[in-house]
Write a structure and sequence with these properties.
The chain has 391 residues and is of the alpha/beta class. It has 7 helices and 22 strands. The N terminus is likely disordered.
């Protein structure tokens, strides 16, 4: 397969610079479809209109973008069949304003989420791409995701999080901007300038989903704790969003896979309850992912629940000399199940976002998770054995 890298240069005018924001690509004459497209674009939301299929071959196509955000999943096409699909993808870089930048971690510097380009990846059992267009759009609702390694767009196999799966379940009137990062707590997220950056992109009517707790509970010392620094930081997210006319939504942290006698043992101390208290006090919608993931893991059972986490014997992935046994971080199957829990949370809250859920989405219950045999994930080419920050 070919690797398409298309860098569109800035066009200089006398007093300003303008950058192209509309692109068209035709692959109908190519013998093999592209693996990737990388286009230099300004920050913002982009509508992708893609023609999937081939006049000569049957296909099965998956489309992901930036750091493995899922948009189109295993779309089958018959020989001669062309299907048009659209979705909206968010792109950003680290610049906040006037030489101020987000303080990203060293391991983030290679992340596609933080560069100057919009990246699309085409994969699947038999990917077939005929053509696509990319157009900047300003009239869609953006959902900003704030959180840690359970939310972040994980770049490499076998790691995954719900934030990179959830775009697949929404139509082209919604864009997900995932600012989460592994190892972050609510206060360190703010301290790194992540909140300040996303506020430069936020507009009235947008949403901000806030899920922290895993790393916050490890902070000790004066002023630390669920009802002290944690709640103060959450209140900062809420206040800043409201100043922008946006809609904050609190999300309790996902459970760790910690069983005793077949039941999940809560490990987050009083952090989920503190978040619930704040949601009630501030009249903020809350998705209780803490409760939903308890139900999910217990429904799977002690052993089968390992299939939702990064549990793999040695040598499953390149340079993996030891077994991976992680009870916090999900694999693609687990992340996909939890993304469905979040969708159900949106539905149960009756948020206006619910009307933008994809028409092919089927009602889901964490008490009856999808059988792993029905989940088909085509891995990306990049894998790493180092676990994400945080636990």
């Amino acid at each position: 397969m070919k690797l398409y890298t298309l860098i569109i240069a800035l066009v200089a005018a006398i007093t300003c610079q303008a950058q192209q924001t509309s692109y068209s690509f035709d692959f109908s004459k190519d013998k093999t479809p592209p693996e990737r497209i990388s286009v230099d674009v300004p920050d913002g939301n982009y509508k992708v209109t893609i023609q999937i299929g081939s006049k000569k071959k049957a296909g099965s196509t998956t489309v992901r973008g930036e750091s493995r955000r899922l948009f189109i999943e295993n779309l089958p096409t018959k020989k001669g069949q062309i299907i048009e699909r659209t979705f909206v993808i968010n792109k950003r870089n680290t610049l906040i304003a006037d030489g101020e930048y987000v303080k990203i971690k060293p391991r983030e510097k290679s992340k596609l989420n933080w560069n100057d380009k919009l990246d699309l990846e085409f994969s699947g059992d038999a990917p077939q791409i005929t053509s696509l267009t990319i157009d900047k759009v300003d009239n869609v609702t953006t959902i900003f995701l704030c959180g840690n390694s359970t939310v972040v767009d994980q770049d490499n196999e076998p790691w995954a999080s719900w934030g990179q799966m959830i775009p697949r379940f929404f139509d082209d009137q919604v864009a997900f901007a995932n600012y989460a990062e592994s190892g972050e707590s609510a206060n360190t997220f703010i301290g790194a300038g992540r909140l300040k950056k996303l506020l430069t992109q936020m507009k009235e009517g947008d949403y901000i989903f806030i899920e922290f707790g895993h790393n916050d509970q490890k902070q000790k010392g004066p002023g630390k704790g669920a009802y002290y620094s944690y709640m103060t930081s959450l209140k900062t997210f809420i206040d800043e969003a409201r100043l922008k006319g946006a809609n904050p939504v609190l999300v309790t942290p996902t459970q760790r896979r910690s069983f005793k006698d077949g039941k999940i043992v809560d490990t987050h101390e009083d952090y989920p309850e503190a978040m619930k208290w704040l949601a009630q006090k501030e009249n903020i919608p809350l998705i209780d992912l803490h409760a939903m993931t308890r139900t999910l893991y217990e429904a799977m059972g002690v052993e089968e629940s390992k299939q939702a986490f990064v549990h793999y014997p040695a040598n499953t992935y390149p340079n993996q000399s030891k077994a991976l046994e992680d009870n916090t971080h999900f694999n693609p199957y687990g992340a996909y199940q939890i993304a469905k829990c979040v969708v159900e949370g949106i539905k149960s809250l009756n948020l206006p976002l619910a009307k933008h859920i994809s028409t092919d989405y089927q009602t889901y219950s964490p008490a009856k998770p999808d059988a792993i045999e029905t989940f088909h994930w085509v891995p990306s080419k990049f894998a790493e054995v180092e676990k994400p920050d945080g636990n």
